[in-house]
Design goal:
234 residues; mainly alpha; 2 domains; elongated
């Protein structure tokens, strides 16, 4: 008779797996992919190295799951923003700001997820998620074109340009030497960080042929996204 795990055993197993993934993410925040070693993850999670291999037969399996978890969280945030009942311009602006601001808060982790070289299997997962991010930006552009907000000949190309521009402009800078505070060396204050993000927004909107008018304070997209994102992260 085959053994079937009880719900309690399954929940404990899932809890341990999630604990290992979060431990790996914490290590990435400090030093990127090279810090994610099986023994280091076990120590960070307070578990044995054997427990790591029980859930992840190889390091590559662990790295791929770490990428899916972290990139999935970021994609979920962008998807929520893309669905807000406001103008396409407000959604696009909010999406760029959210992506960039979250990257600035954890620059080492953001760089590792977006650009830092890693195992080929993880690179394949990365390419899949990059395509999914572009899909969400295209959704926003398509609705903007339909509403007469944007004049874009090919929204697929434009979405790829926007996402690629964000990644290259923000992440390449985040991959540079950082200060003790964890910020890029050339970013000394929140005001400078905000100015950097505004430059990225301005460039993206310029490509769409419209000025990046700043949203009014407490716009619906900010209120809605903040509450839904908070619930989604619980």
């Amino acid at each position: 008779m085959a053994y079937h795990r009880t719900p309690y055993v399954e929940s404990k197993r899932a809890e341990a797996r999630q604990r290992l993934v979060q431990a790996a993410i914490s290590l990435m925040e400090r030093g990127g992919w090279r810090e994610v070693q099986m023994s280091a993850v076990a120590a960070e999670a307070g578990l044995s190295t054997g427990a790591v291999y029980l859930h992840f037969p190889s390091k590559t399996d662990l790295l791929a799951e770490v990428y899916r978890t972290q990139a999935g969280n970021e994609l979920h945030v962008l998807t929520l923003l893309a669905e807000q009942p406001v103008s396409a311009a407000d959604r696009l602006r909010a999406g760029i700001h959210a992506f960039a601001q979250r990257a600035m808060k954890k620059p080492r982790l953001a760089y590792a997820i977006a650009l830092e070289p890693t195992d080929i299997e993880v690179e394949e997962v990365r390419l899949h998620f990059h395509a999914e991010f572009a899909v969400q930006f295209r959704r926003i552009l398509d609705s903007g074109v339909a509403a007469g907000e944007f004049e874009v000949a090919d929204t697929q190309v434009a979405a790829a340009c926007i996402f690629g521009g964000i990644v290259e402009s923000m992440m390449s800078l985040l991959g540079a030497a950082t200060t003790a505070t964890g910020r890029p060396a050339h970013v000394k204050s929140p005001r400078q960080a905000a100015a950097l993000i505004d430059d990225v927004v301005a460039f993206c909107f310029h490509g769409l042929g419209m000025p990046p008018a700043r949203p009014r304070s407490k716009t619906p997209v900010r209120r809605a996204s903040a509450s839904r994102i908070a619930r989604a992260k619980r």
